[in-house]
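Aim 2 progress. For DUF402 domain-containing protein, the working sequence is reproduced below.
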Amino acid sequence: MERFEAGRPITVAMTKWGGRPHWHWAGTYLGADDEGDWLGYPAGTRYAKPGKAFDADWVSVGLVPRHDAAHLTVFNRPTATGDNPGPINAEIYVDMATPAVWEDTVLRSIDLDLDVVKRWDGAVEIIDQDEFEEHQLAYGYPPEIITMAEESAERVYDAMSSGLAPYAGSAERWFAILDSLA
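Predicted structure tokens for this construct:
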């Protein structure tokens, strides 16, 4: 079921545990399928967090999975010049996070540090384990949050490594929709 009409502006507002500000950016609602809600982030999207901001020179689509999954996925497309997206350096980037919640057109979630990425050469890896361990102590993650993030990372890693949906071509339809809205 479509949450909004395609083309509706949305905002993604991430925090760290305890309400600490984190990444914030705007996008466009693209539609929904069995996997979840799909969001578009055109080239020029400004990503900002305290002390850091950049404008993307690449196009991305995001997936907010159904069923209260504990992650958010972003699929990246190389720039028109064929360069790989700047600081992301990944074809697919999945943040382990609390299940996302919509508040009207604002999507909110808490980033839990662990990430699963598929590099441009096809390598799949879990990254930022050191940050995850540091923040468990510094921010006081409850045991159930630690377990949720670790189990979610393993499930995403396994699915991505096995080439299962949505990590094997599901995003192409949504890139085409984003392109048609430009």
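The longest strand covers residues 20-33. This observation will guide construct design in the next reporting period.
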